[in-house]
């Protein structure tokens, strides 16, 4: 009799090893977990099979993974610091002539031998601007690597806090209904009535002064942010503007999650398994977090993935308007803002950071679209039939014997 087997590719075999390895780790922490969750493990493998057959999804995954890796290791692999100005250490032919200022990509300059230059990390010899330099003679390649860290940290902080607030309020509003729902949703409507970017601009313009006082009173907060953004100690005061952008985006990012989750809770709370949990005496928190939330985590995860790109784009826009990162800190939007006055002569100041923003946001959008297909059981099952092929039992046995 014929039987169905998976027609596995190289990536599928890697997916099997990844899931099996993860199952072994979890089973060591929670003995017996692997045996009880065989069905879940097969479902995880099928999800990865689905991703492996989505060229756009794999492209998005590669772009996002490259961005995350660059953001993590960027400050460590950057040739120089984000604020190093070569104009003070370059050997020049004539006084006042600095070849490092607005140097095109591929320009090589000679560093002179001095105590100051060695102190800022410049050893005597030749240095090449891979992507060019800006109007202050700073290496654009190094600043873009530091800017990746800024974008990643801002996106994680904004989405994690904004999504958490929105999900909690949406759960409460949808589950309790009545007056609680009315109050939460009317507040949400007030925030949604104003353009999010306008609200973010308003908060970003007013918060830095208050945050500067907070940093002075609680220096540990500034220290934590300094390590997160890979900023030098002497530039801690500049973090107030960056922190104001994060708080401003918190203010405008939660309402969309509240409306999304509330609508899904209204359709889920009357299901049979929720009624059964109530009849068994499960607490309200248990019903919301163990029965309702897990059954709508798929759409929320897709929304979060796409929002990562949205936050990066919005933060870059605020920095371009002069309300985000302030010099000398590195940020993609700020680099474009500073380089706009030299365009098109110094085109690299806009092209390279603009390309990074485009690829990063594009990658998150592609990955979000792929996750939507992966996490949808109907789409996943339709792909499962395409993954399988019919093999005669005799051929399967012969193939196994040949191995």
From TrEMBL:
Limits of the ABC transmembrane type-1 domain: 148-368
Superkingdom: Archaea
UniProt entry tagged with the keyword Mitochondrion: no
Subcellular location: Cell membrane
Transmembrane segments: 56-78, 152-178, 190-211, 238-256, 300-326, 346-368
Assigned keywords, A-Z: Cell membrane, Membrane, Transmembrane, Transmembrane helix, Transport
SUPFAM superfamilies: MetI-like
Annotated family: Belongs to the binding-protein-dependent transport system permease family.
PANTHER family assigned: D,D-DIPEPTIDE TRANSPORT SYSTEM PERMEASE PROTEIN DDPC-RELATED, OLIGOPEPTIDE TRANSPORT SYSTEM PERMEASE PROTEIN APPC
Name of this chain's protein: ABC-type dipeptide/oligopeptide/nickel transport system, permease
